[in-house]
Specification:
The complex is a heterodimer of chains A (351) and B (368). Chain A is of the alpha+beta class and 351 residues long. Chain A has two domains: 106 residues, Hypothetical Oxidoreductase Yiak, Chain: A, domain 1; 188 residues, 2-Layer Sandwich (Ribosomal Protein S8, Chain: A, domain 1). Chain A contains eleven helices and twelve strands. In chain A, strands 2-3-4-11-5-6-7 form a seven-stranded mixed beta sheet, sandwiched between helices. The longest helix of chain A has 19 residues. The relative contact order of chain A is 0.17. Chain B folds into two domains: 278 residues, Malate/L-lactate/L-sulpholactate dehydrogenase, NADPH binding domain (Ribosomal Protein S8, Chain: A, domain 1), CATH 3.30.1370; 40 residues, Hypothetical oxidoreductase yiak, domain 3 (Wheat Germ Agglutinin (Isolectin 2), domain 1, 2-Layer Sandwich). In chain B, the strands form three sheets. Chain B has a seven-stranded mixed beta sheet, with helices on both faces. A three-stranded antiparallel beta sheet of chain B has the order 9-8-10, with no helix packed on it. Chain B has twelve helices and twelve strands. Classes of the chains: A alpha+beta (351), B alpha+beta (368).
Chain lengths: 351, 368
């Protein structure tokens, strides 16, 4: 957090984001969804998936890579599954649509499992697993994108650092939200290092020649967490999502049919599991509470003053930023200003 | 591999294992399933999940922990899901049963998802995900057990190093199967270090006081792979399996409602199989199958997997690597070698199997 950082109320920021998306042609209800997902990320401190994406999205719409008025279709359906064609929809628009459908299926069949093809950037994945939690379900989502990570043993990109999120509800405690990339470090952490002008630890990334680098500006290819583990998970996600709906994203690049760089075409799997079909919901939530209490009471490792459960640090930030506003660095503010000028929209107070 | 190592044909070893399991009271069919899963592991070089477990299993039956004649029940069912009560069945018996049932469901509604409660050790998990792959489906399985791994930031066990396996079919290539623990190193690697008398790298494990150790014989608490990632995955597996069926495995230990059973770790019949590090045998798991044909053309799917494997294997190699392996590939090579040339068994394992053979008066496989 630098001195030149400005704080903006999340409500005003969301309103601004919504207005921008309306101007690029997104229907108001969809624009609201997109803005909600971006600002949710900012409130949780995941700024790499927040409003700093707005200028990029505007550009993607201009380039025809994000479709503000998609024809979202259910291509296939069984009592427990769905295949959705996103038509390059804004990720949050098609993913919230899909999670709602998966939740309906889970109510009937215990589980709802949906594949989304051809979506654009989905933002912070935890948002979607949390939608299931709000309906007393467990939520799971994972994503595949074209290569950006070296598989174990390679010095070039061949898989992607596909993230997975899993969330479940608690009672006294906040929901548990796991939201993790399959790389050692998420892309956002490398961007942050660039902004801060610091180097990145060894083992995070390779440069474009495939050599290890600690210069975040040279970091072109991410490295998988746990070697074959992160690499293997990322690969299997592609097999479970993209290829399952006949839309491979790694293969065309690997075989040289398509260039790796560029636009965020993604496939994704979105799952809801209805707790009440299998056990008592209140009992479930109490067990999660007890589990959290038990974990937090364990003896701490050296250098830790607290044991956090998944999602807990982000919930703290969420509370703080919801009250005190979202801090935006100068670079983000500058870029949002130029978007505001382009569309003649009023900036949120303080910017 | 030591000089005193003996190679045994897998068929003879499998027959021996089956016979032992029949003698402890299993039906011939269940005994064959259990033997097949052990053999699958040995053939793929995953010896920690192979026949070296036999003495431990026999001991667990003696102690009433593993039930050779379980009353396996489907306690809940929807068009896509199942809840199976195992009655402490041998893991392979109930897991094969559950995988067959979820594949039936997947054929009808695209996916089958089963929760299994209260089973005992399942052996090599890849066996079950491969069952799905061999039926043109994707298979997913993960497992939860009582605490044996420190969550990120802790110096005591609070979660388990729950493994996950995912398998999908290919056409020209072998089945692509991932089978990984959420700890930095799987248990088998620590055992191997004990056998070889070499230290383990820092960052693998803690001793029972919660101090970092490089002595594999002191390593009792696993550390999660990649800190919060392995730790988070393991925790969420408990939340979407054990807790989902009202049978938590971490919470009772964490809240001190259940004391660690210590008596059984001293039994003599498990000598040689590192009893202190043997997982506590009550587990819950999730077993899922996704029917490829419901969503896309099966042949096309397998060709895409082939192409993907080819593409990955021809990437430029990192320093120190002579080949890029896809998940499951090294194990399939071991399979080819061991299917032809037999399964190498170390002295300790042979000694333990001999005493089992004596106890039940079963003939040992030729060569042992």
């Amino acid at each position: 957090m630098s001195q030149s950082e400005v704080r903006v109320a999340w409500e005003a920021l969301k309103e601004f984001a919504k207005e921008v998306f309306v101007r690029v042609g997104v229907p108001p209800k969809d624009a609201e969804t997109e803005a909600e997902v971006l600002v949710w990320a900012n409130r949780r401190g995941v700024d790499s998936h927040g409003v700093l994406q707005i200028p990029f999205y505007v550009q993607e719409v201009d380039g025809g890579y994000m479709n503000p008025k998609p024809n979202i279709q259910v291509l296939k359906e069984t009592p427990a599954t769905l295949v959705i064609e996103a038509d390059l929809a804004f990720g949050p628009v098609v993913t919230t649509f899909t999670m709602n459908r998966a939740i309906e299926k889970a109510k009937e069949a215990g589980i709802g499992w949906a594949f989304i093809r051809n979506t654009s950037h989905q933002g912070s994945m935890g948002y979607y697993s949390m939608m299931a939690v709000k309906k007393d379900m467990a939520g799971i989502a994972f994503v595949c994108t074209p290569p950006g990570m070296a598989p174990y043993g390679a010095r070039a990109a061949g898989v992607d650092n596909s993230p997975i999120t899993i969330s479940v509800p608690a009672k006294r405690h906040r929901p548990l939200i796991l939201d993790m990339a399959t790389s050692v470090a998420a892309g956002g952490k490398i961007k942050l290092a660039i902004d801060k002008g610091i180097s990145i630890p060894e083992g995070w990334a390779l440069d474009k020649e495939g050599n290890p680098t600690i210069d975040p500006k040279q970091a072109a290819t991410l490295l998988p967490f746990g070697g074959p583990k992160g690499s293997g998970l990322a690969l299997m996600f592609e097999c479970l999502s993209s290829i399952m709906v006949g839309n491979p994203l790694l293969e065309p690049v690997l075989l040289g049919h398509k260039k790796g760089e560029g636009h965020q075409i993604q496939n994704s799997v979105v799952v809801a599991i209805d707790i009440s079909q299998f056990t008592d919901v209140e009992g479930y939530k109490e067990h999660i509470d007890n589990l959290i209490d038990g974990l937090k009471a364990l003896p701490r490792a050296e250098g830790f003053n607290e044991i956090f459960v998944p999602g807990e640090p982000e919930w703290r930030t969420f509370d703080e930023r919801s009250r005190n506003g979202i801090p935006l660095p100068e670079g983000t503010v500058r870029r949002l200003r130029s978007v505001a000028e382009k569309f003649g929209i009023k900036l949120p107070p303080g910017l | 591999m030591t000089h005193s190592e003996v190679k045994v044909s897998w068929e003879a070893l499998s027959e021996f294992a089956r016979e032992v399991f029949v003698r402890v009271g299993m039906s011939p069919e269940d005994a064959a399933t259990e033997a097949a899963v052990l053999m699958w592991a040995n053939l793929r070089g995953v010896d920690s999940h192979g026949v070296l477990r036999i003495p431990w299993y026999v001991g667990n039956v003696d102690r009433g922990i593993m039930n050779p004649k379980p009353n396996i029940k489907v306690v809940k069912e929807t068009p896509a899901t199942l809840v199976v009560e195992s009655d402490q069945a041998f893991g392979p018996v109930v897991t094969v049963f559950a995988m067959n049932r979820v594949m039936e469901k997947a054929k009808k509604v695209g996916i089958g998802w089963a929760f299994i409660c209260n089973h005992t050790h399942q052996g090599a998990m890849g066996y079950y995900s491969q069952m799905a792959a061999n039926n043109d489906m994707a298979g997913i399985v993960f497992v939860c057990s009582p605490p044996n791994m420190a969550p990120y930031g802790a110096r005591a066990a609070g979660i388990s190093n729950s493994p996950i396996t995912i398998a999908v079919p290919a056409k020209r290539h072998r089945v692509l199967f991932l089978d990984m623990a959420t700890s930095v190193a799987a248990r088998g690697k620590i055992w191997l270090a004990v056998d070889k008398g070499v230290p383990i790298p820092e960052g693998w494990a803690l001793d029972k006081e919660g101090n970092a150790t490089t002595d594999p014989s002191q390593a009792v608490i696993f550390l999660p792979v990649s800190g919060p990632k392995g730790s988070g995955l393991a925790l969420m597996f408990e939340c979407i399996s054990s807790v989902m069926v009202g049978n938590p495995l971490l919470e009772p230990r964490l809240l001190g409602k259940e004391v660690e059973p210590s008596s059984r770790t001293k039994k003599t019949e498990v000598k040689g199989s590192h009893p202190d590090h043997v997982p506590r045998p009550i587990q819950n798991s999730v077993v899922a199958a996704i029917d490829i044909g419901t969503f896309t053309d099966v042949d096309g799917y397998k060709e895409h997997i082939d192409n993907l494997i080819d593409g990955l294997k021809s990437l430029p190699k990192a320093e120190g690597f002579s080949e890029i392996f896809v998940p499951g590939e090294p194990e399939e090579r071991a399979f080819d070698d061991r299917s032809r040339n037999g399964i190498p068994l170390p002295e300790g394992t042979i000694r333990n199997l001999r005493s089992i053979a004596e106890r039940f008066s079963i003939k040992l496989p030729p060569g042992l």
